[in-house]
Design goal:
The protein is an alpha/beta fold. It is built from seven helices and twelve strands.
Amino acid sequence: MTGGTVGSEEKDGVISNEKNKDVAALWKEKSKSDIEFTKVYPYSILSENICTENWEMLLQELNKDIAGYSGIIITHGSDTLSYTSAMVSIFCKNFEIPVVLTGANKVLSDPESNGIPNFDKAVCIVRENKVGVWTVFDEIYPASSVMEANCFTDKFTLGECSGRYPDVDFANIKFKNKVMIIKEYPFADYSTVDFSNDVNAVLLVGYHSGTANEKSVKILANRCKLSGIPLYLQGLSSKSGVYSSTDNLIKSGVEPLYDMTTEYAFSYLMFEIN
């Protein structure tokens, strides 16, 4: 249990994290189940406040001996659920038991909350021994492909994942938080981007067709090159051809990332630059 809305309560219109909120206990009470849970609280926060140390704490728990367990359920806030899902999908890719991340759209005391139904689906995945890493939020998604929720509907969407994994030693991960995400937008001016905080990689999130403004990105690419920082372009699909603008950027040294969501590309690079 890591906090988030599923671990929060609302008072006077303000939702605050409450470590004593226990979705597993509420689910057991409602379902009359005799399933046994081992509950761990590596941290308890609103997920928008997540930092690299929190990911490291979570991985330390996932690195422990899991012999005898049928599965792992991680409760998490929805704001950064897709990012942690991508990270966990990489770390747990060889686990032989199901790993499920889930959360809630409203606090558990709200009758419209999907927290208990989501948790129930997570338990079903474990019961059915559906080995893999999954994200449950109304629907069931492969954790490597789930994308950030829509701010108007609270609905997550599904992207693609190439199945490309970073070649790293997972024994003792220390994230350096040195991947900068830059989102392409019309008339973007990247001449003022600050690399003074020892950025190790820049992830440019292109338009839906994997494109970006050539003039703007060439300025960014030159600044990255002078600083010795690799520049990656996300948004490309291996099933489609590339536009001439993208081809020109690739030829100029921008490294393309095919078939990856923003979240997966970010997590991939976070592991890669360890």
